């Protein structure tokens, strides 16, 4: 029985490593061209908005972003507007898995970054797979 548990543990470890090293998938949309990108009760995100993120200049994308932009009044010919942008990202700075705000004359934005598949949507079950597999392994070893 000890060898079987060891084998399952190694298999689980390999699955988690493969899962984490693969390309990330994110929602990719802009509410200016597709109102579903708002992701509210009237505009739902759909599976066709999910995208596997390719590499950019040889560097793999490592996170998903949700950006809320607001232009409060006309600036440089841009009319007041608000939008939500969901896309892939690769900035692993101190902002990974966090939100931050930026503002300037006439506008502001909130940027949220997360590191699990499709996490820039309303929910993502796949984000819990490594945790679930780890709990199963713990239960087997108890």
Automatic annotation (TrEMBL):
Protein name: Protein sleepless
Subcellular location: Membrane
Swiss-Prot/TrEMBL keywords: Glycoprotein, GPI-anchor, Lipoprotein, Membrane, Signal, Transmembrane, Transmembrane helix
The organism's taxonomic lineage, starting at the top: Eukaryota, Metazoa, Ecdysozoa, Arthropoda, Hexapoda
Transport as UniProt keyword: no
Pfam family, one: QVR
Coarse class of the protein's main subcellular location: membrane
Matching InterPro entries: QVR-like, Sleep_regulator
Membrane topology: Lipid-anchor; GPI-anchor
One GO term of the biological process aspect: regulation of synaptic transmission, cholinergic
Signal peptide: 1-23
GO CC, any one term: side of membrane
């Amino acid at each position: 029985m000890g060898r079987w548990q060891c084998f399952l543990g190694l298999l689980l470890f390999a699955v988690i490593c493969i899962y984490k090293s693969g390309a990330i998938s994110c929602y990719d949309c802009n509410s200016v061209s597709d109102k579903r990108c708002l992701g509210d009760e009237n505009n739902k995100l759909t599976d066709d908005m999910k995208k596997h993120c390719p590499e950019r200049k040889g560097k793999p994308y490592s996170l998903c972003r949700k950006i809320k932009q607001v232009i409060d009044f006309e600036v440089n010919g841009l009319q007041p507007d608000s939008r939500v942008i969901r896309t892939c990202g690769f900035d692993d700075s101190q902002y990974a898995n966090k939100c931050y705000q930026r503002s300037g004359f006439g506008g502001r934005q909130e940027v949220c970054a997360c590191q699990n598949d499709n996490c820039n949507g309303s929910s993502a079950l796949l984000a819990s797979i490594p945790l679930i597999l780890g709990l199963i392994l713990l239960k087997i070893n108890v």
